[in-house]
Design goal:
With about 450 residues, this protein is α+β, with helices and mostly antiparallel strands. The chain folds into three domains: about 80 residues, Substrate Binding Domain Of Dnak, Chain:A, Domain 2, CATH 1.20.1270; about 160 residues, no CATH class; about 150 residues, Umud Fragment, subunit A (Ribbon), CATH 2.10.109.10. It has ten helices and 22 strands. The strands form four sheets. Strands 1, 12, 13, 14, 19, 20, 21 and 22 form an eight-stranded antiparallel sheet that branches. Strands 4, 5, 6, 7, 8, 9 and 10 form a seven-stranded antiparallel sheet that branches.
């Protein structure tokens, strides 16, 4: 008998011994003492033959004897059906994957642009309505990169208006803001009601009709409207980015008497008209970076200032909902302050850490020198929040067992300035590798 045949028989023998151990482990309390004794004797006989020089005439009877005993004793465990085999394999794979996710690496999707341009949340590539839509082949290829095309035709004819809110104060001053979007549950994958997720509904006025555009929740639709109807202003390098750009648009519209009443109340007239069926909006949504989070390193060391880190939010009262239910989200921010650090943002938009302008890591330094060309606009001392807010207009001392978190996109980041510090016990890990999409961000996380 050749070498490969002998190896095959030995492999079968070892598999039978493994099956015998499993049957005894799972069915020991169901088997009689005699049946269990026969199985152990047959297993020991086969084990001895495996240790001896291979002789088929002696090995095969020992193999068959253990097989016959296992058929009687095995129940659902032996012989193993193909279905059982696959089920066990799937269960074990799920257990291993769960263990890896819980203790080593966890996939994490960047939901918003609070860390832009270091990490991308949902971003948009905006085309003018008159520009061509990507063809079907291009759109199909873009799906691999998690990019989705939105070519939205007008449902009516007339001038396009953007609904706004007007707030008047006792001193005669007036404050304008874009009308907030509403949130709903989408129709699911291909409109079939499966894999449903939250969507934001944005209202646009066309003539005297209201058209509703649905986009994924937390997507920056205000930026799409700005780049569609006011592309020149959208390019201006302003500290609060789109907030300041919209302020400039609305102030100019008020001066030029282009704020009128419409079907939803006050609206900003864009000066652009469309006919029914013509494209109203033409843009792509690029979904956020998917990265692996290293959950191991912080078992052996403390998080360090300057690192990006992922944390739970259920113990941050400033993120509770309006019914005071804890948040169940995970956030990723930059850790800019460890316990005992003194933090402040000065008039130049620089983050001062313990009396010094922060110089590391590179994204922090780029914000401090306002490297607008690469998307870093500097820091703001505050950006929303209520009684839990910690504005950095005055120096703040980071408390014990807590960290101070800020987004690299300071103007568009709701962070520790708005909802308070991060409890050390809720830190999950640090971004390790951006695995999708395949853009210039792909590779080791910054």
């Amino acid at each position: 008998m050749g070498f490969f045949q002998r190896r095959k028989y030995r492999k079968i023998g070892n598999s039978l011994l493994e099956a015998a151990e499993k049957v005894e482990l799972y069915r020991r309390d169901l088997l009689s003492a005699e049946a269990l004794s026969q199985q152990r004797a047959a297993a020991e006989a086969l084990r001895k033959k495996l240790a001896e020089p291979f002789v088929l005439e002696q090995f095969e009877p020992a193999l068959n004897q253990l097989h016959d005993v296992l058929v009687k004793n095995g129940g659902q465990i032996y012989p193993v059906s193909t279905g059982t085999d696959y089920t066990e394999m799937i269960i074990m794979a799920a257990i291993v994957a769960g263990g890896i996710r819980s203790f080593f690496l966890q996939p994490f999707k960047i939901p918003t642009n609070s860390m832009w341009p270091t990490y991308n949340g949902m971003t948009a590539e905006v085309r003018q309505p008159s520009e061509p839509i990507p063809n079907l082949v291009t759109q199909t290829a873009q799906v691999v990169q998690w990019t989705w095309t939105y070519a939205i035709p007008a449902e009516a004819s007339g001038e396009v208006g953007i609904p706004i809110n007007i707030r008047r104060y006792g001193d005669g001053s007036v404050e304008y803001s874009l009308r907030p979007k509403s949130r709903d549950v989408g129709t699911g994958l291909f409109g079939l009601g499966i894999m449903r997720s939250a969507v934001d509904k944005v209202e646009i006025v066309v003539g005297q009709d209201v058209q509703v555009v649905s986009v994924p929740a937390d997507f920056g639709m205000d930026g799409v409207l700005l780049r569609t109807f006011y592309p020149d202003i959208a390019r201006l390098p302003m500290r609060r980015q789109d907030q300041d750009r919209w302020h400039a648009v609305i102030q100019a519209a008020a001066k030029d008497n282009r704020i009128k009443n419409g079907p939803l109340g006050p609206m900003l007239l864009t000066g652009r008209s469309v006919n029914r069926g013509q494209l109203l909006l033409n843009f792509d949504i690029k979904t956020g970076d998917m990265l692996f989070v290293d959950r191991v390193s912080y078992y052996f060391r403390q998080p360090e200032r300057g690192e990006t880190f992922v944390f739970r939010t259920n113990n941050i009262p400033g993120l509770n909902d309006r019914f005071d239910n804890p948040s169940q989200n995970y956030f990723v921010k930059r850790l800019v302050g460890v316990p005992g650090d003194r933090l402040k943002v000065n008039e130049k938009g620089q983050l001062i850490i313990n009396g010094q302008v922060g110089q590391t890591p590179e994204p922090l330094a780029m914000n401090n020198r306002q490297d607008v060309e690469h998307g870093y606009y500097g820091y703001l001392a505050e950006n929303g929040g209520d009684r839990y807010a910690i504005p950095l207009t005055d120096e703040h001392l980071v408390t014990d067992q807590h960290y101070f978190a800020m987004g690299d996109n300071s103007a568009n980041s709701f962070d520790s300035r708005g909802w308070g510090e991060v409890p050390a016990m809720d830190v999950v890990g640090r971004p390790l590798f951006i695995l999708h999409p395949f853009t210039n961000h792909w590779g080791p996380a910054k």
